[in-house]
Automatic annotation (TrEMBL), chain B:
One record GO biological process: iron-sulfur cluster assembly
Organism (species): Pediococcus parvulus
SUPFAM superfamilies in alphabetical order: SufE/NifU
Superkingdom per UniProt: Bacteria
Ranges where the NIF system FeS cluster assembly NifU N-terminal domain occurs: 10-130
Signal peptide: none
Stated name of the protein: SUF system NifU family Fe-S cluster assembly protein
Similarity remark: Belongs to the NifU family.
Gene Ontology terms, MF aspect: iron ion binding; iron-sulfur cluster binding
Classification via Pfam families: NifU_N
Length: 412, 146
């Protein structure tokens, strides 16, 4: 493996800590990534030297803060190859971004009798906003199902995507199955039917190069905290002509052009969507995170994570009675592997792994309709990042064996 | 690497209740029943309470969950049956105190029976919700439910 990935614990001091007297093996990167010193220091530096509110004062500090805040918008645009920084709206999170689209754009374009097409592998955050929109507008919410190998059934998608479809909302990479969907192809199909496409890139943007113009996404959303930045900062990319049509959904300071006793007018996008003092520190950190990722290179990060997944996958499939959800091909897993261990409940497995320093998620992963389709209540999920090591994965597999043996010895 | 500490949580009596839970069935003539969900894992437990006068005559549960939630539900059905309504509600409260690592009275310990050993859950804070789910359902059922 390239040297770039050696000694990353210098950048991520948390990776040096111990959990229950064992070295930490952090495998819950799909829930949130760890934050490198470079991001934390940039935020600290901002608060120590440049802090002021943005888009308000005329004094030097306020100008510096505003310039830094807007400079990151350029960086985000470049990171996802957006046509303009004005197509980048800062939000709280992916969830916040998707709610903004469903509320503002959804209310604008979806009418009675329309169909909204999503997939059964969506996270609740890319499901419930559309479910609610469909209820509000008396529209129909339809689901694309899975193939036998638990990848997206493209034939079903083509069948359900019709001229009635107003909007397609789909995850780029599933937070449970780890599969990456062919967004470019789906966008093309959606546009052939005059439907819009909303892409949830929360699980992809830190793991592969995402290019909104190449994908031809109408909207694309992601969160800072899954890409080395802090919690509370998200991004909503929208095509400029669509953002221009959309009404704001929150009102207050910063988003207005002028206000009288009886009326108000809004700024242009993206600022009309950013009411109130924004998460300035979060934005500054997001810029540092993009610098960090870009310095390594998204192609190299992707290759590294593929290598780690390819290393881990056969070791897991070799464990007797371990069931992996999703494709049987490691290359289809984008660093996310959900599994169950025999009849053991995921919580019991996760507690055992935790005792051995291995931090994984156990639960429904905010994807209950998918869990129902898979026929399970919950799963264990391990999710990798480029900063994980081969040693981490060896410890993880060893820990699974120990947990399995522990419960095998306990009356099961 | 060692899992010795896990033995504090998954003791033989816990594993026994989980693999052979007591009173795991619906009570069609229950006075009240309440279903609760563990939002983090999607586990669900419904507690059924059959009252006669002021006494808890029968307690049962249905639903799926991990070893801890199933064992705890099973122990709950044993513990609350036969108590008065006031005692049963106080028993649930005592159990909540116990799994948070607090001391409980000798009288409360007698009510809880086997469930007293789940005091070890206090050492595993992430699992407190698993242990308390059935008891919260029972408490709500005792206090009215539907």
């Amino acid at each position: 493996m390239p040297n770039k990935f050696k000694n990353l614990s210098h950048d991520f001091p948390i990776l040096k800590r111990k959990i229950n007297d064992e070295p930490l093996v952090y495998l819950d990167n799909a829930a949130t990534s760890q934050t490198p010193n470079q991001v934390l220091n940039r935020i600290g530096d901002f608060y120590q030297h440049s802090n002021a509110n943005v888009h308000r004062g005329v004094y030097t500090l306020a100008n510096e803060a505003t310039a830094a805040y807007e400079q990151v918008r350029n960086q985000v645009a470049a990171f996802i190859n957006a046509p303009s920084a004005k197509s980048i709206v800062y939000t709280r999170s992916t969830t916040d971004s998707l709610n903004l689209i469903a509320t503002s754009f959804g209310n604008l374009v979806v009418t009675q009798g329309d169909e909204i097409l999503i997939t059964i592998m969506e996270h609740h955050s890319n499901l419930i906003p559309w479910q609610q929109l469909a209820k509000r507008k008396h529209a129909t919410l339809r689901y694309v199902e899975l193939n036998a190998d638990q990848t997206l059934d493209m034939a079903d998608l083509k069948h359900k995507l019709t001229n009635k479809t107003k909007l397609v909302a789909i995850t780029q990479t599933s937070n449970v199955l780890g599969v990456t969907n062919p967004i470019k192809e789906i966008a093309k199909l959606a546009h052939q039917h005059q439907a819009y496409i909303v892409v949830d890139a929360a699980q992809s943007v830190a793991h592969q190069k995402v290019d909104v113009q190449d994908l031809d996404a109408d909207f694309l959303t992601f969160s800072g905290h899954k890409m080395l930045a802090t919690t509370g900062i998200g991004v909503c990319y929208g095509k400029p002509e669509l953002l221009a049509e959309m009404p704001p959904v929150q009102f207050g300071g910063e988003m207005i052009e002028s206000v009288s006793r009886t009326n108000a007018t809004w700024q242009a996008a993206p600022w009309k969507f950013e009411a109130g003092t924004p998460n300035i520190g979060g934005v500054i950190g997001l810029g540092a995170a993009i610098d960090y990722l870009s310095e390594i290179g998204m192609a190299e990060i992707n290759a590294r994570e593929q290598q780690l997944t390819a290393y881990l996958f056969p070791k897991l499939t070799a464990v007797n009675k371990l069931t992996i959800y999703g494709s049987k091909e490691a290359s289809q897993h984008a660093g996310i592997i959900s599994f169950n261990l025999g009849q053991l409940h995921p919580h019991d497995v996760a507690t055992g792994l935790d005792m051995l320093g291995v931090e994984v998620r156990a639960g429904h992963h905010c994807a209950q309709p998918l869990m129902a389709t898979l026929g399970v209540q919950a799963t264990v999920r391990a999710s990798l990042s480029f900063y994980n090591s081969v040693e981490d994965l060896d410890r993880f597999v060893q820990a699974i064996q120990m947990v399995k043996e522990f419960f095998a010895g306990e009356s099961k | 690497m060692s899992l010795n500490k896990l033995n504090q949580l998954y003791m033989a009596v816990v594993m026994d209740h989980a693999s052979h839970p007591h009173h795991k069935l619906a009570l069609p003539d229950a006075t009240t029943s309440v279903e609760l969900h563990n939002v983090s894992c999607g586990d669900d437990i419904r507690a059924f309470i059959l009252m006669k006068d002021d006494k808890v005559q029968q307690v049962s549960f249905t639903g799926n969950g991990c070893t801890i939630s199933q064992a705890s539900a099973s122990m709950m059905t044993d513990a609350l049956a036969g108590l008065t309504k006031t005692e049963a509600v106080a028993g649930c409260e005592a159990f909540f105190q116990l799994v948070m690592g607090k001391q409980i009275s000798t009288k409360a310990k007698a009510w809880l029976g086997d469930a007293e050993i789940l005091g070890s859950v206090a050492e595993f804070p992430a699992r407190i919700k698993c242990a308390t789910l059935a008891w919260h359902a029972a408490q709500e059922a005792l206090e009215g439910g539907n």
